[in-house]
Structure formats: C-alpha cells, structure tokens
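I can't quite decide. Please look over this sequence plus structure tokens:

:::
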Amino acid sequence: MTNNTISLTLEEKNAALGLSLRSLGSALIAFSGGVDSTFLLKRAQQELGVHATAVTAASETFPSREFDAAVKLASDMNVPHLLTEISELDNEQFVANAPDRCYHCKKGLYAHLKRLASEHDLPYILDGTNLDDLGDYRPGLAAKSEEGVRSLLVEAGMTKDDIRVLSKDLNLPTWNKPSFACLSSRIPYGTPIDLEKIDQLDKSEQYLLDLGFYQVRVRHHGEIARLELMPQDLIKAIEYRNSITDALRSYGFKHVTLDLHGYRTGSMNEALPQKVI
C-alpha cells in the first residue's frame, strides 16, 4: 500500500479491490460474519462467483451466537462455505496470555486454513484486515504475513468507515454491526486463559446485548467485571445497575464496575510498556 492508495476516492478504492480479486482467480476468505469479512466475501463473490469460498472456524473464544450468525449469513449470500474447528486452549502459548498471545492464535489459525485451502485447490487465503487495524498493537499481523495471508482491504487503502459505507450500498446487514474481537482479548495479559473465564465473559456480554446495549466489552479482572459501553449508554447502565449486577454475579463475578471512559478497542493494551507496542 502506498500514499497514492490512501488518497484514492472510495470508488477508486473499490475498483482497485475488484481488480485485485479478479487477478486471483479463486480464493478462500476467512469469514467471521463481521463488517469487514462480510464485505470482502460479498465483493469476492461479485468478482469470482463460485470460485470465492468462505471458511468459518468454531473455537472456544468465538461465541456460538457469532458462529451461528456467520453460518446463516453465508447461506443467505449463497456462497460456498467451509466449516471447521480449532482449539486455541490446546495451545500453551495462547493459554499463557503473554502480550504476543494473538500471534500464537493467528499462527495456528492460518496454518490450519492453509491446509484447508490446499485440500480444496484454493491458491490464496484472504482476511478482512483493514487500514485502521494497522494502528493498534496487533501481533497477529506478523503471523498473517508469515503464512502468506493477504489483506486486500489494506492493499486497496480501505478504512472501517469506507467498508461500512460500501456495505450499506450493497445492502449488507452487517454495515452497522458492532465491532467484535475474540473473548480472550478481555483478559489482562499474564492472566492464564481458561474456559471458565471465557464462559463468564460470553454470558455477561450476551446479557448486555439482550438488554439492548449496542457495543459492549466486559473486561475480566478476577473477581471484578469492568464494563465498557458506548458513552451514550452509560446512563442506561446505571438505570439497569441492579439487574446487571445480579446477572454478572450469577456468572461468577463478585464486583461489577462501569468504566467511565467507555468502550474503546484494545484497552488491555493500555497497560503494555511502550517498547512492547
């Protein structure tokens, strides 16, 4: 990607993406059902037809609601869709939850997808990384590069806002879907990841979503659950404080706190030394 790519209009970026997709002939698209991968899959379908294949991996840190939604969306889009499964908790380096946790997770995932792609004679693997993702601490990007996975949205200079606008134009239901990251990102570095913590987080975030909160993160600090919500939802959280507290306590937390700074991506990275980031 060059400065010239960044300065392109939205229409030019979309055209560049189409050109890149057509040049591949066929590809396997890592599909989570989120904003970015759904847009990429749709554009791949437009340019490659049946030669664009989606793949979704079930895992301990990917909530069943997200997996089920991805399966339904791929079916609605009528694209070839491979379903597979990985177990991150079998990876000791992932479980240890050092600051490079994401690297070990993505390394295992992309190696698995490479084997699938080879079995199905698909020469390229694509992911939904966009330009904005490059601004945060993401050690998983190194694993992506090592395994030869391409990020055509980055190559086309597309930001998250670009993708939402184009997704709306395509009538994709994900155009305004909240951002999502795997549940392990809610656990402070150095705290081992286990199924009990993941289950607590999954149930807690599902409860908040069921209450109608749009963008939620529940951060796991031992006995304490720290809620990150959109600033406009903070008053609503106070109004529901008793029911929220009762629910999260029933999931194993003893204390429930509200982060007044609100939702932001990668807040666990704020504790990392600058030299690590």
